[in-house]
Amino acid sequence: MEKLQSKIPQVRFPEFKEAWEHKKLSDLLSEAKKRNNDLKYSKDEVLSVSGELGIVNQIEHLGRSYAGVSVHQYHVVETGDIVYTKSPLKANPFGIIKLNKGKAGIVSTLYAVYKVNQNTAYGPFIDYYFSLDANTNRYLRPLVKKGAKNDMKINNAYVLHDKIFAPSISEQTRIASFFTVLDKKIAQLKQKKSLLEQYKKGIMQKLFSQELRFKNENGKDFPKWEKKKLGKVADVNPRSDILPDTFIYIDLESVVKGRLTKKERINKSEAPSRAQRLLIKNDILFQMVRPYQRNNFFFKSSEKDFVASTGYAQIRTSGNSEFLFQFLHEETFVRKVIEKCTGTGYPAINYTDLSNIIISIPSENEQNKIANFLSSIDDKINRTESQLEQTQKYKKGLLQNMFC
User: Closest by alpha carbon to 199, among 388, 385, 378?
Assistant: First the structure.
């Protein structure tokens, strides 16, 4: 495709008909050589370039400034400038290219800064083009030479030496404006999810500290909470039945943020020795290794061929499993678990110590109230997260069909 002089993208707005031209990046951008000689910008205004966040203030992003003794030779980055980072990232071994959408500032001489040619290019379009890792890597790979220390050997002007496919400036503007609207929607969904999670965390603290209590159906107080060992409230690592000949194996990497993301079916004869926890509906898996990650799993399925690793404690209760699952994430309980963790490298709690942790437990009716309330918040969080993932997937698909 790179040998073509023009192309028509798979997806585009119907008002545009002309093919995209194969243009040198130097026709769209030019090197910006302005330095901070007058020290207009201080170390507080040094910028960092993040693959996920774009160009951000270094102190706000990293918590401190990593600037050298003097910043008078740093490059000045105006709003709307394009910055090339000459440092490898996992997904971008030849660096990344980003648009400065925020305040002006400065970057070290390890970066290259470019001005957008207003007659041929629209900055946000360039930014969206290089937001695809495939585009960035494909463009930079032939240009960049890597040194012995994995550093980038490339002249700032030479970065503009190759070509990309680009439409007229009016189509560039239309495309970028559309994706800007999508990005605003994604930002709104992220904020909504974050606010819901903060709300849930706050409400959990009040509920489990008993600062906030529910009333029964007659408007009266529920009984006082009782202090019991976890092992008296639930069976911790109940004896498993004989494992099936094949099963879905859940190890510590199978669960991410409480969701089962990897389903690997294996034969019992080939299973690791730690595959021992045969699950039934409403079992809880509590991560014993590094539990501060809280990467726990609530097994709500009726399927009978799921087996978990002994890296989890299997917790089974005849009471309200949803309540207990929520309780296991409460701050005070997590601190008690961490205090009992032993070992170096990957500290863990053993199931006896876990069983002996004292917890305060309400009546079953109050458990039901708490569980239903917290589950309703989880439903809102999950719906928001699903909308976020769908919107991000939709955006990525459009980018690939327009730019690749």
Answer: 378
Phi, psi of 204 (to 5 degrees): -65, -40
pLDDT in tens, 10-56: 899 999 999 999 999 999 999 999 999 999 999 999 999 998 899 99
Highest mean pLDDT among 41-50, 188-197, 335-344, 347-356: 188-197
Element (H, E) at 187: helix 169-208
pLDDT of res. 3:
54
* 95 and 28 assigned to the same domain: yes
Judgement on whether residues 269 and 350 belong to the same structural domain of the protein = yes
Residue 160 within any structural domain of the chain: yes
Residue 326 and residue 293 share a domain: yes
A 10 A CB-CB count for 143 gives 17
Question: Distance between CA atoms of 57 and 103, rounded to whole angstroms?
Answer: 9
Domain span at residue 356 reads 226-361
Q: What is the average pLDDT across 196-220?
A: 94
pTM (two decimals): 0.85
Count CA atoms closer than 13 A to 139's CA, side-chain side. Answer: 28
Per-residue confidence (pLDDT) for residue 2, from 0 to 100? 45
Number of domains in the chain: 3
Which residue in 222, 229, 321 sits closest to 212, CA to CA? 222
Cβ(124)–Cβ(99) below 8 Å: yes
Q: How many CB atoms lie within 10 A of CB 95?
A: 24
Give the residues across from 215 on adjacent strands: 221
Same domain? For 101 and 129 the reply is yes
Mean pLDDT of 194-215: 95
Same domain, 115 and 127: yes
Band (pLDDT 50/70/90 cuts) for residue 174 is: very high
Q: Is residue 200 domain-resident?
A: no
Whether 204 is covered by a domain: the verdict is no
- Quick one: average pLDDT of 242-247? 93
| Residues forming beta bridges with residue 63, ordered by sequence position | none
* CB contact set of 2 (below 8 Å; sequence gap of 6+): 22, 138, 163
280 shares its domain with 335: yes
What type of residue is 258?
A: G
Q: 180 and 257: one domain? A: no
Structural domain includes residue 198: no
Rg of the chain over Cα atoms, rounded to whole angstroms, equals 28
Task: Assess whether 35 and 131 both reside in one domain.
Answer: yes
Count each helix (H run) and each strand (E run) in the chain, helices first: 10, 25
Rounded Cα gap, residues 171 and 59, in angstroms: 36
